[in-house]
Design goal:
Helix 3 packs antiparallel against helix 4 (96-130). The chain has 293 residues and is α/β, with parallel strands linked by helices. It folds into 2 domains: 7-124 and 282-291, Quinolinate phosphoribosyl transferase, N-terminal domain (Aldehyde Oxidoreductase, domain 3, Alpha-Beta Complex); 134-281, TIM Barrel (Alpha-Beta Barrel). It is built from 11 helices and 12 strands. The two termini are 34 Å apart. The strands form 3 sheets. It has a 6-stranded parallel β-sheet. Strands 3-5-1-12 form a 4-stranded antiparallel β-sheet, covered by helices on one side. A two-stranded antiparallel ribbon has the order 2-4. The protein has helices at residues 7-21, 27-33, 57-66, 96-130, 151-160, 178-184, 187-197, 211-219, 232-243, 259-265, 277-280; strands spanning 41-48, 52-53, 72-75, 82-83, 88-95, 139-141, 174-176, 204-208, 224-228, 250-254, 272-274, 287-291.
Length: 293
């Protein structure tokens, strides 16, 4: 296993990325380093230009394994480790042709996934500072707002940053959203059908856009109620009411949860906060690959 993934799964995704970038090989590098004599061994260093949390190291290793396995890597910062600007995160040694062929893909994935892990860590740390002692844990999760082809790796980066996973696909959980409610006739009708026909191992979650929908979901037997795009003051009044309804239900906040907003809701009696921005707009961590010889 590679970080919990089947090697074949990791390789299938990476091969698609490599085929996109190298459909006929690296033409420029082949012109200069395409012979045994010119394809000399060089060393390179992966250097951070800003602080962050490292994610994606196992992908760099697999990229170079798929390119021939002649590049040796040594990481000075572990997966999930914090780093500062100027730190050398990894050193590489191998044929210059192979190093150059994998450089852009390795950097793209590491920069992006490290940004996901870094942003997640900021949310997790902020909640830890503002969560009153003795309260139930408040989990930070992503959503399905992931980039095509990158979902498994982005969700891994969230976990590396200290977060947790939400459902991984439409097949992995029952989440009754607003359009489902329109099509089924409302919260109570949707819950009744889901409880009657859903596979028994699955919990049932309802997305509530209003306090009235949230109350109806709790009363109707939902296992999880997602409070969608509600303001902090609205949730501050609603959450204690839902807890007093007498059922143990997981309460999740989602929709527009910025770093400023998470400060406000960290003190509420919630179980989960799901944040789409962790994967759809984390920015980039600035890293570079310096050739040393």
């Amino acid at each position: 296993m590679i970080e919990g993934f089947l090697p074949a799964t990791v390789d299938r995704i990476l091969l698609a990325f490599l085929e996109e970038d190298l459909p006929e090989g690296d033409l420029t590098s082949r012109l200069f380093f395409g012979t045994a004599s010119s394809n000399r061994t060089v060393e390179a260093a992966l250097v951070a230009e800003e602080s962050g949390v490292l994610a994606g190291t196992f992908l760099v290793s697999r990229i170079y394994a798929l390119l021939g396995g002649d590049v040796a890597l040594s990481f000075g910062c572990p997966e999930g480790g914090a780093f500062e600007a100027g730190d050398t995160l990894a050193t590489m040694r191998g044929p210059i042709h192979e190093l150059l062929a994998g450089e852009r893909l390795a950097l793209n994935l590491t920069k992006h996934l490290s940004a996901v892990a870094t942003l997640t860590r900021r949310y997790v740390d902020l909640i830890a500072r503002h969560r009153p002692p003795g309260m139930r844990p408040l989990r930070v999760t992503e959503t399905r707002k992931t980039l095509p082809g990158l979902r498994l790796f982005q969700k891994h980066a969230v976990r590396v940053g200290g977060g947790h996973s939400h459902r991984s696909s439409l097949s992995s959980g029952i989440l009754i959203k607003d359009n489902h409610l329109v099509g089924t006739g409302g919260v109570s009708a949707a819950l009744e059908k889901a409880r009657r026909e859903a596979p028994h191992p699955y919990r049932i979650e309802v997305e509530a856009d209003t306090p009235a929908q949230a109350r109806e979901a709790v009363a109707g037997g939902a296992d999880i109620v997602l409070l969608d795009n509600m303001s902090a003051p609205m949730m501050a009044a609603l959450v204690p009411e839902l807890r007093r309804m007498g059922r143990e239900v997981l309460l999740e906040a989602s929709g527009g949860v910025t770093l400023d907003k998470v400060r406000e809701i960290a003190s509420l009696d919630l179980d989960v906060v799901s944040i789409g921005a962790l994967t759809h707009s984390p920015g980039d961590i600035s890293l570079r690959l310096d050739f040393l010889s």
